Structure prediction request, 779 residues.
Amino acid sequence: MDRMNSREELLKRIYKERKGVIRWVKHNSGSRNDGEDVLQEAIIIYLSLLDQGKIVDNKDPMPMISTISRRYWLGILRKRKSVFVPLESVATSEDITVDIENALEHESRSQNALNAFELLGDKCKDLLKLFYFNKLDMVKIADQLGFRNEHVARSMKYKCLDKARKLINDK
Amino acid sequence: MNNLEQIEKYLFGDMSLEEKSEFEVQMDKDPGLKQTVNEYSQTFSALKRKWVEDGIKKLNRIRLIKQLAVAGIVVIAVISAIFAFKTNKHHEKASINSIDFEVENMVENSLRDSLYIQTDSTVLLEKNISQSNLKDSSYHPKNFAPIVGVYQPIKETLPTIDSFLFNEMLTYGEIEDSAGAETTFNPLIGVKWQTFTLDNTKNNRITLLGGTVLDIGSGILSTENGENNLKEVKLRVKEFLNYYDLWQEGIHTSSNGQQLITAGSCLIEAESHGQKVNVKPEGTFTIQFPGKENPSNTIFYGSKSEEKGFNWIEGGSDLQIFKDNNYNNFYGEEILDDESFGKTKSKFSLSDTIWFFETEVMDEGLMAGKYNFHTLNNLGVFEEVFNPLCSTKHIDIKSMFLRKENLLMRFHLDSTGYMDRFDYNFKLKRKAEKEMKKNASSLIGNTKINVQDFKFKERIVNVTLLPNFRIENKDSILTDSSLMEMETFQDGRLAYNAIVSSQFGYINCDRFAYYNEKINMNVHSEIGKLQDVRVFFLNENSVMNSQITGIKASIQNIPLDQPILIIGINQTGNQMFILETTTANSVKSGKGEAFDALKVKNILTTYR
Prediction:
């Protein structure tokens, strides 16, 4: 097994079970598209919490995904002022609630940042994705991407990350 | 531990509590650090969002394809029962020399339509299409090759075989890049003209990009009006050295329906002051095509007309053939001593069949691209193209052909932010036995680059490219170089087939293909007219066209024991199909198997 569970595998697991979230959003004044957006947002938050060690990766991510989805969607509804929904209606422990709220607040939804990301070289994109998302270790990445060894790959990873930071934050 | 490692640990919760609080104190003291941490945090956030978005898009696409596949299975199961019934009926009529394929479009307007093939003379197929064996059949949707890509038409017209194959060679089964995004290509269609200005009062030797050499003696050209005293003549040439080039030109290799195997062909045109120029009636000139020599090769002239299509006609007995394997005769010192390549010569042996190519191109520490090319078949077409993680989205495959003394590469990199194009062209020089280590230079776009460590061995060429393409001083010392390694297989000998021609135009160095056993094949389309069906011989440089009458295409005299590709376009259904098979090594009586392992390599109906 690689460093951790691949985020890609995790994504597949969540995607398989996505219907519940979408259905819930549809039942709560949302459309199917809203449901898909909410799910995507929830996955991003979930991964952030996971990466920060705020939650533990377990075999069933759906309860947490559902919780995040609901909080996120209810937040949107409140902003739209179309529906009054007490947040308490989503039962969650206090600690994780704070974490979720922080993560929701913190998540960058800047399209500029995503566009900037496109300027990053494909090799860099691959490298960063394999390491941070697919959770491959450097030896495998070096092998897969054809670097001479893991040290070269690691050094390249930092260069790529730095370049990504400059591109995204200069936007 | 450097800052970035610390930041990474901090953001990913990999610090102990002590480390964390210490780092936070540090951040409080250092606003710059805090700012950097925030920036990295935003970066990770953006990256994650991008990956998740791409991942979901990819999963959505997979779901769609699965749904379509399920629909296809249901339909094909029903239809197979019908055809199983039909097949039994047709058994009595089975003939040794005629095999019919029936192509049927089962599901219209889907990403992948089902293709159904029937023959009434092969036991193999008969088994496969029975309902009980459907699940193991190579025609079962699960066994179909994956869709190679969403065809991106350039114009609102039907796709052509040429454009499709170009696309297929580029993508070769890869529709998505590593992030799940669709990859599209803009195929460049058409063999390019190479133009020259000759002095007709002197001997002219022209070495074309593909390695073809023209020797045009002084004073042999005249205008079609008979003007002999020409000095400046503009000559342009297209080279067709493999079946890919032939596709692009829309020509084939058959002479009055007889299959030819080509050792190279070209189209030559010339003019002087607006007048067409050709070889004088008594004049001749020599063309040398690089390739394995074959004494059976002779000259053919091509003619193309709208009514009769294209045809090759044998050039006549008075035209001599000669071979010359001593390439030094063909290369004057002035070429070998080209300053760019140095004066040291090296022998270089290669086959025209298989080679391996890998390079990493680096640009200011960022990887710009990695390319894995494996296995060129003997026609210069890649069997595998590149690693799906390859960052290159546009590769001009044509320029990747290794054609004897010229290795032309053209990469279109889209990823570095610094460079979106990489043209590279160097000539492999060969003369001495030892390795050559010499600086060389070439042009990348408008930027001059250098090549270091230009080494030739018997079977391996190592070329070290400059890592920084913006360095213009060829004497620069490089510390961070990338390696391009090319390995050739076997000890294919360099040789030329030389022919003497008495005219310009389409000229082909060919031989007739003689096979003891042949079959005829018919391809039927049940959903409408066929537009184009061709047979490509994978082990020979040969392409045969078909006679099309409405929904039926006939291809005569297909030799046995040959791997072939049958490629066609169905006009009505916009369906393009590719069948890959090997004709059996013998035809048995009655219901003998005429085709081995007939499999659907590809079906495209994605054109909309």
